[in-house]
Write a structure and sequence with these properties.
This protein is α/β, with parallel strands linked by helices and about 300 residues long. Helix content is about 35%, strand content about 20%. It contains ten helices and 13 strands. Strands 7, 8, 9, 10, 11 and 12 form a six-stranded mixed beta sheet that branches. Strands 4-3-5-13-6 form a five-stranded mixed beta sheet. Strands 1-2 form a two-stranded antiparallel sheet. Strand 1 (about 55-60) and strand 2 form a beta hairpin. The radius of gyration is 25 Å and the shape is globular.
Amino acid sequence: MTASRRFLPSISALRALEALGRLGSASAVAEELALTQSAVSRQLQSLEAQLGVDLIQRDRKRLSLTPVAQEYVIEIREALNQITQASLRLHVAQVGGTLNLAILPTFGMRWLVPRLPEFARLHPEITINMSTRLRSFNFASEPFDAAIHFGEPDWPGTDRLLLKSERVLPVCAPTLLPNGTPKSPKDLLRLPLLHIQTRPRAWQDWFGQLDVTYTAPLPSTVHDQFSTISQAAIHGLGVALLPSYLVEQELATGRLVAAYPDEVESIGAYYLVWPKSKSKDPSLREFRHWLAAQAQPEDALPR
């Protein structure tokens, strides 16, 4: 059923409302949209009249969003972004294919990006756009054709390609172990442990695979990325559980040492994940066929 025109406002009015929510002032909106402030005000008034809802709080000369408008802006921002991305894909498609890819920052930079020159040489007609995402998301609300994902591949309505399993190793600054490497993994419970936000059970899994039981909560600080947690470990703030490929250089130079020598395979692995609805997309099909040849178990991760 076709939606009533009342509920299909103009893009320019929606852009003005979204920009006001993001920038906080009519003057900033006018500058971003290359309009006068009076033109911005007219667009917002027109939008309110069309929807029959108060969207703007007017305090003397200052404009701000009402609470209902703040919620509305969150939804239309996603829609405007999808329109922009669809238009970009349409434009790029005139000269070749395009692939919008969500990547994990560390794995993307260490594993994927060094391999991409070969793909660009083989498929110069395909443009790959990359953005980082640390958490799972809904493909329906994000403008991505595929994503690099770590963990169990449990997203509904998707297919996947296994890229790499991972082994982790506890590491720390040498100053944190004045008496040398502990003889038992249980000894690490006496040290400050560094946690990464996206893998809240990493330490529990590591201790569990080494048959270490404990009852008290694990002492910890939480970090959002491998780049920050590795720096915290280097500066002696605690023991970090990191992928072994990520810390080879630091171990070789002595900036970090193994807090216990046993590497343990992580629960979960790296996957390329894509919606089943996009499985026949030509650019995605070429990319995953090429990527499958890169994902050999014996192929060491690039340093």
